[in-house]
Specification:
Blueprint: H1 13-39, H2 41-45, H3 54-70, H4 72-85, H5 88-106, H6 112-115, H7 118-148, H8 154-181, H9 185-190, H10 195-212, H11 218-225, H12 233-238, H13 241-276, H14 281-295, H15 297-309, H16 311-337, E1 344-352, E2 355-360, E3 365-371, E4 374-380, H17 383-404, H18 407-412, H19 420-436, H20 439-460, H21 475-491
Main location: membrane
InterPro entries: MFS_dom (IPR020846), MFS_sugar_transport-like (IPR005828), MFS_trans_sf (IPR036259), Sugar_transporter_CS (IPR005829)
Keywords: Cell membrane, Membrane, Transmembrane, Transmembrane helix, Transport
């Protein structure tokens, strides 16, 4: 897949940074739009799904969240083809508008109590539109920035695009917390949760006008002027054995493992704290937000480093570290939040007949609320425990930056200009959208199944219980990342396939 190498370096570095800034801003907004749904998963589960079974409603919400990931490869095919035929700029302007309109519409859908099963159906359709839009956005933005960049600085330049996914999640958490703090808990639960969705419309309008004034990629314009663009990028990418081999290698040797590590280190960490450890909603958002803020700069560090030593060793090292340390990290998080490991103080506060607050010597509290025969426990950890957990999440974010920081440059360089948008988008969005996007739902299901099985064992004493059932969900990312690590180690090359 070698081509004649044409170096197109920007003579105006200021203009190059405008390209990076404008591309990153739009992509950040799309990630914000996409992840605001996951960040509000617990609240959404009570609004759009039948309220009689909270666990089933939450799993249904996660499944709807995952649906947006599942359709991302179809968006990659549809918009990737457009991007290789008509251009990068116009294609990712369309994806921005589709994403923004779908996100705003989710904030306007009436709840289950108002329109019944039409509510989850409408939300699912809008979620699918979000997934299609994101499927076309990332490949376009990464390709656009890479094709403006100097080949020997491509890892550094494209790493700024990589920061947008984490910043998008961070901003979604920040907007939720600011919205929630600006009103009563009752108001937020009633209508305030819609505000973060509606805010998206303002951000999309700003980004659209910025992107409208951008120029087309110089490499694409050159290829188009010379008549070297592809008339059928889908057939050329996936119908030709030689090109399709690189698509499969990119998927199974890199993006599959990168996808599960990305979603474990950020989304599953959030879900684990809220649903397995029962840590307070606001505290979990602060913990994840602090870790993301501290770790995001390392996307650029590892992108820059990949220009020096290559993409492969950094990405594979991130996978290997995650495989070896996930279970110890999550076991430690669980032990830190488990109030049975803490010394309970004599004092306790009864707020109401159904609510009791217990206090512990490390500053943690546990609020027990009885509803019928069910007792719900919510834990607020003390300051020392808070920072310990934030550090453990930060370590996972470092793994994310190692596998994700260099991958845009890695994917761009695997494919020639004429089919680049299409060819790189599909393996990226299968690896992230399917293998990664399914992680919260699959991991939560595995934990729930292990806990139910353990409860049955305790009652019957018929078998040996699961060892630490709260860690059962981690087998999914560990196995997927392990397969990707082995394939990448054996078959990836630590050099550019196409430096144009």
């Amino acid at each position: 897949m070698q081509e004649t190498i044409t170096v197109v370096a920007s003579s105006d570095k200021k203009n190059l940074w405008k390209v990076i800034g404008a591309s990153s801003l739009g992509t950040l907004i799309e990630w914000y739009d996409f992840y605001i749904f996951g960040s509000l998963a617990i609240v959404i589960s009570t609004k759009f799904f039948p309220p009689d079974n909270p666990t089933a409603a939450f799993l249904s919400t996660l499944a709807t969240f995952a649906a947006g990931f599942v359709v991302r490869p179809f968006g990659a095919l549809f918009f990737g083809r457009l991007g290789d035929i008509i251009g990068r700029k116009y294609t990712f302007m369309v994806t921005l508008l589709v994403m923004g309109l779908a996100t705003c519409a989710i904030g306007l859908v009436p709840g289950y109590e108002t329109i019944g099963f039409a509510a989850p159906i409408l939300v699912l359709v809008l979620r699918l539109l979000q997934g299609l839009a994101l499927g076309g956005e990332y490949g376009g933005a990464a390709t656009y920035v890479a094709e403006h960049s100097e080949p020997h600085k491509r890892g550094f330049r494209t790493s700024w695009i990589q920061t947008t996914a984490t910043f998008g999640l961070f901003i979604s958490l920040a907007v939720i917390m600011l919205t929630k703090s600006s009103m009563s808990a009752e108001a937020f639960d009633d209508w305030g949760w819609r505000v973060p969705f509606l805010i998206s419309s303002l951000m999309v309008v700003v980004s659209y006008f910025i992107r409208r004034n951008m120029d087309e990629s110089p490499l694409f314009k050159k290829a188009k002027n010379e008549g070297k663009t592809s008339s059928n990028p889908l057939k050329e990418s996936f119908g030709k054995k030689y090109n399709f081999k690189f698509v499969l290698l990119a998927l199974f040797g890199a993006t599959m493992g990168q996808g599960v590590i990305w979603y474990t280190g950020q989304f599953y960490a959030l879900s684990f704290l809220q649903n397995v450890c029962h840590v307070d909603f606001d505290q979990t958002n602060f913990i994840i937000g602090a870790a993301l803020l501290a770790g995001t700069g390392f996307f650029v560090v590892f992108g820059w480093l990949s220009d020096k030593i290559g993409r492969k060793p950094i990405m594979l090292a991130g996978m290997l570290l995650a495989i070896l340390t996930y279970r110890p990290i999550y076991d430690r998080i669980y032990q830190l939040t488990d109030v049975t490991n803490k010394h309970e103080l004599v004092d306790q506060q009864r707020i109401a007949e159904e609510t009791v607050v217990k206090m512990y010597d490390d500053g943690s509290t546990a609020t027990l609320t009885k509803t019928g025969d069910t007792i719900k426990q919510t834990v607020r950890v003390g300051a020392g425990t808070f920072f310990s957990i934030a550090l453990l999440v930060f370590i996972q974010v470092l793994y994310v930056t190692m596998v994700y920081g260099p991958i845009a440059a890695f994917l761009v360089e695997m494919f020639p200009v004429r089919i680049r948008y299409t060819s790189m988008s599909l393996p990226y969005h299968i690896g992230n959208g399917i293998f990664g996007g399914l992680l919260p739902a699959v991991a939560t299901y595995l934990v729930t199944k292990a806990q139910v099985a353990n409860a049955a064992v305790v009652q019957t004493s018929a078998a040996i219980p699961h060892d630490r059932p709260y860690l059962a969900g981690l087998w999914y990312p560990i196995i997927i990342a392990g397969v990707s690590f082995v394939i990448g180690l054996c078959y990836l090359k630590n050099k550019n396939q196409n430096v144009q």
